[in-house]
Design a protein that fits this description.
The protein is an alpha/beta fold and 386 residues long. The protein has 11 helices and 19 strands. The strands form 3 sheets. Strands 11-14-17-16-15-18-10-1-19 form a 9-stranded mixed β-sheet. The longest helix is centred in the middle third of the chain and has 19 residues. The structure holds pyridoxal-5'-phosphate.
């Protein structure tokens, strides 16, 4: 399809389905597809639908707002959220039958109020901090949290539906922190079980652990990045045939000749040592393209990978066409599935000294519009945004 878009993100929903299905088959436990941060930049609602189609029993998001947006879009399945501030709209969360994570007795107090307001039984999951030192109860505070949760359950306020934790170093499978956290998690489960809690799901693993650490799978795995086809642990992950779902593309704006000695872009950080041609690509850090990747990342133009030259600007960047003259209007692929020989989000992450998560999430929250395709349904290759 010919597209005159200056720049756009193309998301292949078939790739999301394929990845979720592959991960589910591999792990053999229930699947939570994590769609926070607008589906890691891929669009939360369309990717959530694709994940459900592929069998995801759960969706995971950070905030209550995200969870409520999924409900508003018609999702009726299990949804877990886990990040709040005091005074949050727990009433809406309870009314929407969300699984609400509690880290502290104070959060349980707020949920209890919401139960009173709505007249509904809540679904509560408890999080134990086993070593990330982010959200969750410390092991020292855990017995009191568990007692409070059990008392509220006996009083009919809620059902404790899950107990979970999160790993710090799952992308480094040999790090002893993984064993230590899993051991701490098992100890926390024992405390909860001794107090009479019988959670439906116990879960610890994100994408990297789900793939690399079978002992961490418990009843459910929470897969984000791998669902989008990106490698959660570069250099460690076996080839599972996951397919990157996002392509970031632009239209070549201009092709120009430069002479030896000509400097390129702000600060003159690249100077041509021989005559060449430059392609002007109309995207920059205002679109979420990392400025740090200038002089390092590549883009696919006219079938070849072309290095960026000079600094990446707010709205534009330059690639070296090596003396060739592809036509303005030609396609520029910043990154995509990699199947066409072009760069991937992982390549851009390495060029920008970051992780692929940040590449797709940022570019997906910039000004490039998103377009959905479905490579399994060519007749529907253009899918209306949800
Ligand atoms: C974001 C997140 C995940 C998903 O992690 P991936 O590495 O993308 O699979 C899982 N669990 C929690 C608590 C998260 O915040």
């Amino acid at each position: 399809m010919k597209s005159a878009a200056r720049a756009e993100i193309v998301v292949d929903l078939a790739a999301v389905r394929h990845n979720v299905h592959t991960l589910r088959e591999l792990t053999g436990v229930a699947m939570m597809t994590v769609v926070k941060a607008d589906g890691y930049g891929h669009g939360m609602v369309p990717t959530a639908r694709a994940a459900r189609e592929a069998g995801a029993e759960w969706l995971g998001v950070a905030t209550l707002d995200e969870a409520l947006e999924l409900r508003a879009a018609g999702d009726t399945g299990r949804i877990l959220c886990w990040l709040y501030v005091p005074g949050e709209e727990y009433d809406a969360g309870v009314a929407a039958d969300l699984d609400l994570t509690a880290y502290t007795p104070a959060e349980l107090d707020e949920i209890e109020e919401a139960v009173g307001d709505t007249g509904r039984t809540a679904r509560v999951q408890l999080k134990i901090d086993t070593g990330l030192s982010r959200g969750g109860s410390s092991p020292a505070a855990w017995p009191a949290l568990v007692e409070r949760a059990r008392a509220g359950e006996l009083a009919g306020h809620w059902k404790v539906t899950g107990i979970w934790s999160h790993l710090s170093s799952s992308d480094e499978p040999d790090d002893p922190a993984n064993d230590a956290q899993e051991t701490a998690f098992r100890a926390a489960l024992a405390v909860a079980e001794a107090a009479g809690l019988e959670p439906e799901v116990r879960h610890l693993a994100n994408s990297a652990a789900a793939i690399l650490r079978p002992s961490s799978r418990f009843d459910l795995v929470r897969c984000g990045i791998a669902s989008y086809g990106l490698d959660p642990a570069p250099g460690e992950t076996p080839d599972l045939g996951l397919v990157p779902a996002m392509t970031a593309r632009a239209t070549l704006a201009l092709v120009k000749d430069v002479a030896a000695g000509d400097a390129v872009s702000y600060g003159r950080t690249w100077i041509a040592d021989a005559p060449t041609t430059l392609g002007l690509v109309p995207v920059g850090y205002g679109d979420g393209v990392p400025r740090r990747a200038g002089n390092s990342a590549e883009a696919l133009v006219a079938g070849r990978r072309r290095p960026t030259r000079g600094r990446i600007c707010m709205d534009q960047l330059l690639v070296d066409l090596g003396g060739e003259h592809p036509a303005p209007g030609d396609d520029v692929e910043l990154f995509g599935s990699g199947r066409d020989g072009g760069p991937t989000a992982q390549d851009w992450a390495e060029a920008a000294d970051t992780i692929s998560y940040e590449i797709v999430t940022r570019i997906g929250s910039g000004r490039m519009p998103r377009r959905y395709v479905d490579s399994d349904r060519p007749d529907l290759s253009e899918v209306a945004p949800a």
